């Protein structure tokens, strides 16, 4: 979920109890250093990673086609 650009940190916290700093620590521990730097650069300015910055009309945490069943 953290790797996905459209999933806000608040959704991760609701499901797994990890706040934003906890997710960052987890990603730092689990990813290779270069992958972590790329992820941080990508997430740093991403409006969709923070529910408060999102357009209020977007109520979902992920793309409708992301989890096909």
TrEMBL record:
Name of this chain's protein: TIGR03643 family protein
**Source superkingdom:** Bacteria
What NCBIfam families does UniProt report for this protein, alphabetically? TIGR03643 family protein
